[in-house]
Amino acid sequence: MSRSVRERRTPSPQEPMPSPTHATSRPAGGRRPFVIAQISDLHTGSPFFVANLMERAIVEVNELRPDVVVVTGDLTNDGFRQEYLLAKSYVERIECPEVLVIPGNHDSRNVGYVHFEELFGPRSYHYLREGISIVGVDSTEPDLDYGTIGRARYRWLDEKFSEPAELRVFTLHHHLLPVPGTGRERNMVYDAGDTLEVLQRCAVNLVLCGHKHVPYAWRLENLFVVNAGTVSSLRLRGNTRPCYNIVTIGEDLVTVERKYPFHGSEVIIEFSPATLAFEKPPVRDAAHHPGT
Question: Is the pTM of this model over 0.70?
Fold first, then answer.
């Protein structure tokens, strides 16, 4: 189990308490790629949860040996303790030095955030290593499907992202931008406009989120926003399939791949943090492209 998961303490309800910041210097003269695996929307306890998809994703992630795994919420279906215990049993099998977890709206149902704090730690975190800064925030509200970041946390984000870093990543559960192929827009971050302005001010490069079960990627001004699909649920829209994301951060290029358990991968987007040039291949397997 990651030290980040084990050692974090319960935050104040008014403002997130940062978890320990882990900082190491990057080797002089270049470095190997830094790899982040993003899994989201497990939904353990749901009748649509498929255990062998979750197990296969864990095997694949362990074989990849990423530097960090981020879990962007909805570990459970209804926030019940037995669902949390099952979700934790899966997360504990991820062999990675850092597993960073935030809750989703389903996890905050039925006072589920109490179990989250007990089993996973604080609902927000800050991680800094090898020049990569990752900040995660609980965007949920108890028993509500929409999300919010909240004015009380804007200054906290300013503070955490002010630390020197070569690439800044923000993680949350809810989507900040509408996702094509998901039907009528609803249940996004209510203060998305203010949050996006804060992230732009903080020079954030990449946002990783989940919630809608449809993978997609946007560029908005200097910011790249990537949604993950569901890794292990069959609550799917259109022709989407269960998947998770692999983010590879090189010297001058960030590549985000969509990985299908058992079934290979494809690039979602590649971009240069320095020049903002990007390439987004045609979407072959999304809800808004039926029959392709």
Answer: yes
